[in-house]
Specification:
Elements (H helix, E strand, L loop, with lengths): L10 E6 L5 H13 L3 E6 L9 H8 L15 H7 L3 E7 L1 H9 L5 H8 L4 E5 L3 H5 L1 H12 L3 E2 L3 E4 L5 E5 L3 H12 L10 E7 L3 E4 L2 E3 L6 H12 L3 E7 L9 E6 L2 H11 L5 E4 L6 E3 L19 E3 L3 H11 L7 E8 L3 H12 L3 E6 L10 E8 L4 E8 H16 L1
Parallel strand pairs: 1-2, 1-3, 3-4, 4-5, 8-11, 8-13, 11-12, 13-16, 16-17
Antiparallel strand pairs: 6-7, 9-10, 14-15, 17-18, 18-19
Helix pairs in contact: 1-2, 1-8, 3-5, 4-7, 8-9, 9-13
The structure holds cytidine-5'-triphosphate.
Length: 407
């Protein structure tokens, strides 16, 4: 009789350190268990002041221990870390980051971090002052250098009245980072700074109307998520995107092409690569009416358009001329309806970029869908065909090519 092999469930260790955001880790835990992961929660003793042991035990279906003196015969301080496919610490306090960076091992969580041979993700949450303190910055840099993924905290309201960077990112977004890491992506972008533009610009006609386009931002956001899962530090310049911020990504929101240009030039100052996935309006109204245009006239006034700067071409030109800022690797996207490859090749040459992802677009192709198919044209004449598949798969091919050029 044929026997069926049940695939082993991915084993995740969820480390929880003592921050108020510990309650949000309950949702992260549920996301793991409900999607078939085996989760062992390892809270620090102080974390149990925020969320108690029964909650972690009930939600994970596993025993919960915090120090190395419980169930000693099972050698938990070594076994838990050794057996994990992924360790994620959420929230990670300044204290736990410091201990991890210096190899301290005073409790079960820090022992687990020292014995784990699998990928480790830290999702820090703390007050802005602590996050920005040189000691924390140095600890984060050390952890990243060693290959850990440290997801930058979100910006927003903190405990108390203050706001700033330090919030734990949305558990769903931390989960997406972990899923990306568990999918076996290489950490080949660790330490790389990347800039991605996403969405579509809007060019104002008057206070209520604009000229826009159908770009949803999904492809740019998939690029951002996969880059984080491969260890990169990402700035995402998002034009009019109605999607939640991906965890660990610095999101700069813009509206028009001119704003997008300023944000991209600012972000590329210290970047290794840029991927322009945004659909940028080629033209904008020469003047924006300060008040709503009324339909009083029988013949409406024509809207006079002027050309927007071509940001991708400008980056290529800056690099050619050695005019800072420009990143080492420059990639673009091209939306074409006809003569896709010929137009794509001409565009690649015109924009002076290293690679151009050429999409065929049409009434029901590419926009707002989770799937995409494309051809990547490379400056050296090569071509990579990407069959229809999730936008994450296309993003991974782009990062393979970018990582190879940065290596
Ligand atoms: N792009 C840009 N600035 C613009 C227009 C486009 O940086 N003002 C970038 C896009 O982000 C994309 C690439 O250039 O990466 C190609 O965009 P696309 O709209 O396909 O091409 P266009 O330059 O607008 O050329 P055309 O309208 O002739 O197709």
């Amino acid at each position: 009789m044929p026997t069926s092999v049940v695939p082993r469930r991915p084993r995740v260790v969820l480390g929880v350190s003592a921050g108020i955001a510990a309650y949000k880790a309950c949702e992260l835990l549920r996301l793991f268990t409900e999607s078939g992961h085996e989760v062992r929660v390892v809270p620090t003793r102080e974390a149990l002041r925020f969320v108690g042991e029964p909650t972690w035990a009930a939600l994970s279906g596993n025993p919960v221990t915090t120090d190395v003196w419980e169930s000693v015969h099972e050698v938990p301080h070594v076994r838990i870390g050794q057996g994990a496919d992924l360790v994620v610490v959420a929230p990670a306090t300044a204290d736990v980051l410091a201990k991890a960076a210096h190899g301290l091992a005073g409790d079960l969580l820090t022992n687990t971090l020292l014995t784990a041979r699998c990928p480790v993700v830290f999702a820090p949450a703390m007050h802005t002052e602590m996050w920005e303190h040189p000691a924390t910055r140095a600890n984060v840099a050390t952890l990243r250098e060693r290959g850990s993924i440290v997801v930058d905290p979100a910006v927003g309201r903190l405990t108390g009245a203050d706001t700033g960077p330090g919030r734990l990112p949305d558990p769903k977004e931390i989960f997406e980072v972990c899923r990306g890491v568990l999918s076996g992506r290489p950490a080949d972008l660790a330490g790389r700074r990347l800039v991605i533009s996403a969405g579509g610009t809007r060019e104002a006609i008057d206070p209520v109307r604009f000229i826009g386009n159908r770009s949803s931002g999904l492809q740019g956001y998939a690029l951002a998520r996969t880059a984080v899962a491969r260890g990169a530090e990402v700035t995402l310049v998002a034009a009019n995107v109605a999607l939640p911020d991906p965890a660990g990504v610095k999101v700069v929101r813009v509206t028009s092409a001119l704003e997008l240009r300023d944000a991209v030039l600012e972000a590329v100052q210290d970047a290794d690569a840029v991927v322009m996935a945004a659909a940028v309006a080629d033209f904008r109204p020469s003047a924006r009416s300060g008040s709503k245009i009324k339909k009083t006239a029988d013949e409406p006034d024509a809207i006079h358009l002027v050309k927007n700067p071509d940001i991708l071409a400008e980056l290529g030109e800056r690099r050619r001329a050695g005019l800072k800022p420009y990143p080492r690797v420059i990639a673009g996207f091209a939306a074409e309806t006809d003569d896709v490859l010929a137009n794509g090749r001409a565009k690649l040459a015109r924009k002076g970029c290293d690679l151009l992802v050429v999409n065929q677009v049409g009434d029901d192709l590419a926009f707002g869908t989770p799937d995409n198919a494309a051809v990547v044209l490379l400056a050296d004449g090569e071509q990579v065909d990407i069959p229809r598949g999730p936008k994450e798969a296309l993003a991974d091919v782009v990062w393979d090519l970018v990582a190879a050029r940065l290596a």
